[in-house]
Amino acid sequence: MEISIQQLKKLQQIELKMLEVFIKICDEEKLHYYLLGGTLLGAVRHKGFIPWDDDIDVGMPRVDYERFLLCASKYLPKEYFLQTYKTDKEYPYPFAKIRDNRTLYKERLLSKLKINHGVWIDIFPLDFCSPHTKILYLLRKIILQRTACRFVRKMNPLKAIAQVFSYIVCPSWEKSIKWQDRLIQSQKSNTTMLANFCGSWGRKENVPTEWYGEGTDLSFEHLKVKGPAKYHNWLTNVYGDYMKLPPEEKRIIKHSPLEIKL
Description:
By secondary structure, this protein is an alpha+beta fold.
């Protein structure tokens, strides 16, 4: 389904309001958070949304993330839903989203799942990582195949083999989500690296803890937001020459919506 420019701008405004509510909760509870991914890139390069971006990504150190999950319901307005695999039975990821109940932005990939499909922002936990992280990523990818069978009908032979193995390791879908969650929390806190194990950029998002630090103030549209203290290092590590615009044919939205109601 094609998204019009008008729809994209409306979508971004809905997400921006959710981000504003999220920041207010973090400020009230004194929780650390950082913009991540294309949202961080947008804040630095565009002072707001990348014009073709259709979502918002934030990350929180694990201890702050868990506190947020515990206290968010006290602050979230009734039109918002905090989505995790514990609050939405068929939700297939070990990270959280805030969804707007009044809207619909159904991704083709997840369309058959009986979950809240409202417009969302992603909230990723940042966990410690170590030199063994490559093995951990491999294990998580294998277990992820158990989850993928819920909504992916066709896959290459290698992934099909991984899926068979994942059935042996995790007989139930619910167990696979819990195992993923345990895996990404399994590293010791005395490591000097933090990772977003659920992010889109794999091991590129494994960075020194000091790059996050206490964060730094940035502007995102009309909001004052927090980015990693060394956001230049983070963005360079993930995107390379991040201030350079991609060619026009790559300026496309990331998700593939099947149905939209804003």
